[in-house]
Amino acid sequence: MSQLTSIEICAGAGGQALGLETAGFLHQVLVEIDKDACHTLRLNRPEWTVLEADVKLFSAKPYEGADLFAGGVPCPPFSVAGKQLGFEDDRDLFPHAIRLIEESKPKAIMLENVRGLLSQKFESYRKQILDALLALGYQAEWKLVYSSDFGVPQLRPRAILIGFQEDYMDYFEWPKRKLITPQSVGETLFEEMKSLGWEEAENWRKIANTIAPTLVGGSKKHGGGDLGPTRARNAWKELGIDGRSLAETPPEQGFKGLPKLTVSMAALIQGFPKDWSFYGSKTSSYRQVGNAFPPPVAETLGRHIMAALQKREKKCQRGKVQELNFASTF
Predict the structure, then answer these.
(1) pTM of the model
(2) pLDDT (tens digit, 9 = 90+) per residue, 236-248?
(3) Rounded to 5 degrees, what are φ and ψ at 41?
(4) With contact defined as beta carbons under 8 Å apart, do 320 and 312 qualify?
(5) What are the respective helix, strand and coil percentages of the chain, to the nearest 5?
(6) Which residues are registered as beta bridge partners of 158?
(7) How far apart are CA 185 and CA 269, in angstroms?
(8) Residue 266: helix, strand or coil by DSSP?
(9) Which of 5, 222, 236, 286 has the lowest CB atom count within 10 Å?
(10) Residue 274 near residue 262, CB atoms below 8 Å
(11) Residues contacting residue 170 through CB under 8 Å, at least 6 positions apart
């Protein structure tokens, strides 16, 4: 079976794309409107086809027949930190995602968003999306997943929509919870914290002995280089982190007080590999990290999607062989 292909909208800094690549998908195109995020994608994967464009103006017709349509549509319409306007919010891109699915006719769909989309307030909205997909020939399901179940060192709950053309859905199984026990914040960031000779790094590691709160702070509206609102910063403080701003470098020898995260540290908390680079200012880079879909989550979901597609194709191939064998007897 040839390598399965994907197209992705709202690709951001590549968290979902990286995970899907690791799962085995070949990206036909990645669409992203933010210039710095596009630079990040090209910096890390020069071979990827990155299109800097508004999804509202993008056509997926040239990519008809892709195996997977994926994306992380903007979360402000559904975030608890916003006004939760849903389909009344002009930032809602789900209608455009459905248009692009109709144009590209993929075998499978994976879209992710914030947990707030699964609240009772948006029950009718979710049904509208499922009904629209059903009209296009897709069966789909919503599910809440926790990134920590996939080895990411933060809870980070996400609303995931996975769908298939109807003759594929029966072959899909959601990943079971608690696949990988995540490291603590201390274990995850220890090497970075001690890299410039900070003498208190070992003591700090013992304090930061649990997973992180959900990493926030990626909003352009509230977009300073901090770890979120007061409640989030207080949670980080309990882990020995000053969340009021980000640092340019890890703590040096003689540093006193609570250390701050660097962009690189935040990326590790988000599940990015250490060698993934981010283009732009500190604020822009952190915004890319804060908005990202953790790569380990995307990888696992991608593997389960791929398994369903492959099982269906193998069954079809066996059926064709049986038909040929049956025909040859006459």
Answers:
(1) 0.90
(2) 999 999 999 999 9
(3) -60, -45
(4) no
(5) 40, 15, 40
(6) 114, 145
(7) 7
(8) helix
(9) 222
(10) no
(11) none
DSSP per residue, 47-101: TS-EEE--GGG---GGGTT-SEEEE----TTT-TTS---GGGSTT--HHHHHHHH
Residues tagged active-site: 75
pLDDT at 127: 93
Phi, psi of 71 (to 5 degrees): 175, 160
- For residue 170, what is the DSSP state? G
Tokens of 9: 């909208």
For the segment 85-110, what is each residue's pLDDT rounded down to a tens digit?
444 446 678 999 999 999 999 999 99
Place of tokens 């769909």: 109
Calpha distance 286→213 (Å, rounded): 16
- Whole-angstrom Cα distance, residue 60 to residue 62? 6
Report yes or no: 140 and 89 within 8 Å, Cβ to Cβ: no
Tokens of 109: 């769909």
Work out whether the CA dihedral 52, 27, 301, 296 comes out positive or negative: negative
The separation between CA 69 and the C-alpha centre of its own chain, rounded to angstroms, equals: 13
CA atoms of 206 and 199, how far apart (whole Å):
13
Secondary structure element (H or E) that encloses residue 144, with its range: strand 138-146
Cα angle vertex 310, ends 304, 314, to 5°?
145
Distance between CA atoms of 276 and 103, rounded to whole angstroms?
32
CB atoms within 10 A of CB 304: 17
Res 80: pLDDT:
42
Most distant CA pair in the chain: distance in Å? 87
Strands annotated E in the chain = 5-9, 26-32, 50-52, 68-71, 108-114, 138-146, 157-165
CA 185, 81, 39: angle at the middle one, nearest 5? 65
